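User: Let's play a game. I give you a shape written as tokens, and you guess the letters that built it. Ready? Here's round one.
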């Protein structure tokens, strides 16, 4: 029994020292593929956090083919000082007021544009 315990501890120790750690579980592999979808966009959101005033109301407009469900946790993480009110696609009904700043991601140009939200 002691030999088996030593073998298990040895295998775990070797696995812990390997770089990078292996993604053995299905959930780990799918999570990493899901979360690291747009590293440049995440970097730009982090840059925008310094440019936007603290406490600003923010709504994010993403391209139609993008998943707003992915952008919301990323926006909440990268814009901690701002109030992220909504993430939506163009043409969807707006829930945020006109006092919010609108951050739009242009898919083709790969750029971000910050402007006051248009009046309803």
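Assistant: Ready! My guess for every position:
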């Amino acid at each position: 029994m002691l030999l088996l315990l030593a073998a298990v501890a040895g295998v775990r120790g070797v696995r812990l020292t390997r770089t990078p750690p292996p993604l053995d579980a299905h959930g780990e592999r799918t999570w990493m593929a899901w979360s690291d979808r747009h590293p440049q966009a995440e970097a730009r959101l982090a840059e925008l956090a310094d440019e936007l005033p603290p406490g600003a109301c923010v709504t994010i407009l993403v391209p139609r083919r993008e998943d707003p469900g992915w952008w919301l946790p990323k926006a909440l993480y990268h814009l901690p000082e701002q109030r992220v009110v909504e993430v939506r696609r163009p043409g969807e009904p707006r829930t945020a007021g006109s006092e919010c700043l609108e951050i739009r991601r242009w898919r083709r140009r790969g750029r971000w544009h910050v402007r006051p939200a248009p009046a309803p």
